[in-house]
Every structure is written in structure tokens, then in C-alpha cells.
Structure prediction request, 660 residues.
Amino acid sequence: MRYLLTEEQKMIVDICRQIVSERIVPVRAELDESGTFPREIIDEVGKSDLFRIFIPEEYEGMGTGIFEVCLATEELSRGDLSVATSYAASGLGIIPILIAGSEEQKKKFLPGLASGSKLAAFGLTESEAGSDAGSIRTTAKKDGDHYILNGTKQWITNGGEADIYTIFTMTDPRKGIRGASAIIVEKGTPGFEFGKKENKLGIRASATRELIFTDCKVPKENLLGSEGMGFIIAMKTFDQSRPAVGAQAVGVAQGALEEALNYSKIRKQFGTPIASFQAIQHMLADMETNLEAARALVYHAAKVIDSGEKNVTRLASMAKLFASDMAMKVTIDAVQILGGYGFMKEYPVEKMMRDAKITQIYEGTNQIMRNIIALDMIKRGVLQET
Amino acid sequence: MYRQVIQIKIAVCMKQVPGTMEIKIDPETNTLIREGIENIINPFDSYAIEEAVRIKERLADEEVEVIAITMGPPQSADILRESISVGADSAILLSDRAFAGADTWATSTTIAKAINKLEDCRLIILGKQTVDGDTGQVGPELAQRLNIPFIGYVSSILEINRSKMKIKRLMEDRYETFEINLPAAISVVKDINIPRVPSLRGKMKAKTIEIPVWDAKKLEADENEVGLAGSYTRVVKIFTPQIKHDTRMIEGTADEQVEELHKILKELNLVSGS
Ligand SMILES: Cc1cc2nc3c(=O)[nH]c(=O)nc-3n(C[C@H](O)[C@H](O)[C@H](O)COP(=O)(O)OP(=O)(O)OC[C@H]3O[C@@H](n4cnc5c(N)ncnc54)[C@H](O)[C@@H]3O)c2cc1C
Prediction:
């Protein structure tokens, strides 16, 4: 093992590999084609305790860290990015509760999420608020013991499938970003409905939907942290979740590279396997080198976060940026190596290429990642070993 | 002090088998060559363990304990650990040099002694057969020894409580539904479920759990009733058969069918008499 994994970490990898080979690979093309949410697979992921690795032991979790989350996410992504996204998006909904939840909130919501019997989602984006997350318009107005939510969230992963939603709202719109608050909304709350399910380029089996709030009454106990902390909670969440997007990218690239390498040894043209052509060999070498570099950066970022280091925004963003750009390039090259066959749905690489694209977009586009990295550099200098 | 009482104890009998279909036979000794072959849970037994764990999940408000049992050499503990990783509560390894060379008769004797020691086992689940021995005899023999009913080829457990269960079983041309009293033993077929992937907690538990080894002394077994000494059959030769299906359905009333079958068997020189 190149990364000297512990016994427990190896177990996580083994479990994910078994789920991928037995449950995911046989059905992934079909799920992609029909855009069906992989409920049975997610149930299996839950039964295998993989959601527990997001959560501390006190709340029925395994007490593991972001590194373990990245290992699991990478392995699942190697099989199918829709499954991995659904898995990771539940984590994205869980992290704000871990960061800002009270003891009561943690006790109430985390055990069900740990067992996988419930899924979570993270609702920030709106039609007019993408990269500019500070301009969200969904409001939460205090009314006695409740908040009344109004507004529409867009493109929320696990929308409709999840039971617990961490929603970013404006409790005080006049204050701008400082007036944003995070509130937990449970599925089934009156006034909370789901809009249309998106028809997408990639990760087609994952559920991406609108969340519509119309005078939706949420108990005030569901507020995470205090009013005005919403934006900070969102940013702190991304600090922890972005390496896992990097891990998604590493996983999908790994899957594509394996397909490309195998194919290059079997496909014969001009009387010889295409793997004997230097042009193909060099592509394979670059793919592998970039993949390994991305993996090292993702694991490093995860381990730094797990060490308790405070300033992790830059590293987390770099892991997401580098790995997702790598994955796009590697999956495109995998299609190239398979030639016309790569373009056909009979082979999995065209799907991997379509899926990989999302890693450059969600949880902050790669342009935004570069902005964050550069701003942090200007503020704190170039990274160095202290 | 309040003590939780186990309402339903389920024993799952399993066997470690070579993890390959290309089994090589030593022509000298007529035994399987096991070197260099990875051992696995007999595939049918993984449905048995899964079904036991599902019963446990289904009867969540009753205490169910799932105990995996195997008779075999010390390394058979591997499959017991695997069964812990998919939800068994505990496991027992029946292992002793004296158990070696057992046929189905001696095997069922040994397992029956272990099950009697467990006390109040309500249900025993086995795979329908092993992929190496292929006899399917241990289940019925075990039930016989324990003096409890046996139903083979179960494809679905429709209802179950401490005293009774309703099951469906798969026959060659039909399904049958039975209601039987517990304790009982059943063997299960592949249709019954899809075995789960191990869980992380299960794997952690499997790594550290203490697996008791019960030997002949612990089972109070006489040396002559177990292992080769207690076996009525001996493997003389194993060979790869020419697979030839030649089925003939005999029709008519029961008497006519018996008559006809007798005639056929006589023609084949398999029975004598008139
Ligand atoms: C499949 C899918 C799932 C998603 N899941 C979730 C989810 O679960 N929860 C959630 O809250 N959101 C989710 N999103 C939303 C996602 O996070 C946003 O799409 C993303 O943040 C970008 O916002 P936008 O699409 O509005 O693009 P825009 O912000 O409109 O950006 C358009 C382009 O302009 C660039 N750009 C914008 N601002 C700048 C700038 N300042 N400098 C340089 N370039 C800039 C962008 O990089 C991009 O190239 C999901 C999106 C998709 C497609």
C-alpha cells in the first residue's frame, strides 16, 4: 500500500470496492441512461456504515476524519460519480450540523444520518445566486417559536431524496452576507416542496432538484448556530468538503485510466496493440502522473484538515481545483485512447467524461477556486513548511 | 438486575470451501488438492447467514442472536469472521484432529452435539449444499439427530416468530408453502436474498472477536462417532462426470407410478424381486 493505510482505512477501501464491483458496475450505464436515483445502492452504502465515517462516535458514527471520507468517496467515484455525489452531498448536508449544531441538534439529527436510514442535502444555490452565494434571496422571518421560510433553492443534490436539509436563508436581508443564517428543514414540513428534477449532462442518476419554500414554518430550534452565522458556516463547510470533491475527481479519473490502459493492450491496429505506439504511451504516462499528483494533494489536504489546522481554505481549494482539472483532462484522453469506441455508450468512458465535468463546477467553480487561492496567497504569502 | 433474554437463537451452519470451480483432484489419494487455492464461504451458506441477519433485523423488537458455526481446520475461523462482518453476533469453531475425514454422517453428529450445547436454538439455517461436497445431506441428517423438522430449498421466509414460521420453498417445477413449528432446520437456495456487503463496524468486530474452539472433549464426543472413525462412507474416487440429463416423468396413479418405476429399476439391474 503506497499510503500506509491503517487497518480501518483498508477496510473502508475494501468495502467500497466490493460495492463498486458487485452493486454499481453492473447497473451504472442503465441508471445513467434513465436518470434513476440509485436508492438500492445508497441503502447498501448505508448498511455498510459508510455514512458513519462522517460522524463522531457519540452520535453513532465511526469517529473518523476527512481523509477516510476521501478514501470512500474516491473508491465509489471510481465506480460511478452519481453514487459518489449522492453520498458526498449527504456529507455536505451533515458538515454544517457538525460545525454549528447544538448538542440537542446533533443528538436529534446525526444518528439517523450516520446509519444511512436518512440522507441529508445542502441548499445554498439559487437562480440568481451561484458563485455569488452572498446574494441569496430565500428569507427566514422570525415568528414566535418559528421561522417562516420563503424562496426557491435550485440544483440541490439529493433534493427530494433527502430527509434533512441544511438551508441557507436571509434572516436579515438588510445586512447582506452578515444577515444569512443556516436552518435545518425536514422533509415533510408543510410549505416545503420539490420542483422539477433536472435533466443533466453528467451524474445523471444523482437527483438535482429545486426546493420550494412557501410560508414554510420551521421550529426556531432548527437554527444552526446563531442568526447571521450562515455565510461563515457555509464557507467552513466547503473547507472540509472540497477535498472530497477532489477525491471524486481522482476516483473518476482512476476508473477512466484503468479502462484506457486495458483497452490499449487489447486493441490492435497496424498489426500491433495500440499500447505499443509512443503517442498512446505518453498519454498514459501523463494521465497516470497527473492522477497520482492529484491524489497526493487531495490526501495531503485531508490530512492537514484532520490534524486540526485552522487555515485550510487554500489547501482545500487547491485539492479541488487541481484534481478536477486533472479528471477532466484524463477522462477526455481516455475517450481519445478508445477512439470511436470511446464515443459509444457500450463503453463506460464517455459517461466518465460527462460525469467528470461537474467536479469543475459544483462546490465553487474552478474560477472561484483560483480567486480564493490567490486572495489567500496575497494575504498570507506562499505556502511553506513552517 | 434486569437481564435481557434472548428470545430467538439462530444457528447458521457453514463450511469453508475452495474458492474455485476448477477443482483439481490428486489422482493418488483421490482427494481435493487444496494448496494454493483461496478458501471462501460456501456460496450457499452466505445466503444462510444473510437470511439469519435479516430475521434479526425484521424482529427488531425481539432479541435475536445469530451464531455462526463451522466444523473444520483452524483456518476455517476465517469464514466465521466473515460472517461476523456481515452481522452474525458470535461464532463457534468446531475443530479437533479427531474430526478430520468426517463424512456427512459424522459431520452432522458433531454439529448436533454443538447445537445441543447451545441450548434452545429455535432455528438452524444451512445452505442447500456445499459446492465441494455437493451432497446436501448434512441439513436433513442434523435435523434427524436433533429430532426437529427439516425443510430444504427454502426460497422465502414469509412469517416467523419464536414458535412458528411460514416459508416458501422452491421445487423443480413448483413452489410449496409450509407452516412449521420451531425449533426446526431449513436449508436455503440462492433466490432467498442478495447477501450484503460487510459493514465497517462488522469488519472491526470480526477482527477482534474471540472465537471459541470446541473440540471433541468439549462436545463430549466419543472418538468413534466423529471424524473418519465415525464415518460410514469413504471417498474411493472423485472424477469429472460426463454430464448427461435423461429425465423421464412417470405418469399415472401413485400405484401405477410405483409399478412403472420398479420395472425401470429392475431393467437397470438396480433392484431385484418381482
Ligand atoms: C449537478 C449540480 C449539482 C449541484 N448541487 C448543489 C447543491 O447540492 N447545493 C447547492 O447549494 N448548490 C449546488 N449546485 C450549484 C453549484 O454550486 C453552482 O452551480 C456553482 O456554484 C456555480 O454557480 P452558477 O452555476 O450559478 O454559475 P455562475 O456563478 O453564474 O458562473 C458562471 C461562470 O462565471 C464564472 N464566474 C462567476 N463569478 C466569477 C468571478 N467572480 N470571477 C471569475 N469567474 C467568475 C464561473 O466560474 C462560471 O464559469 C449544483 C450544481 C450542479 C450543476
About this structure: Residues 121-228 of chain A form a domain with the Butyryl-CoA Dehydrogenase, subunit A; domain 2 fold (CATH 2.40.110.10). Chain A has a mean pLDDT of 97. The longest strand of chain A covers residues 146-157.
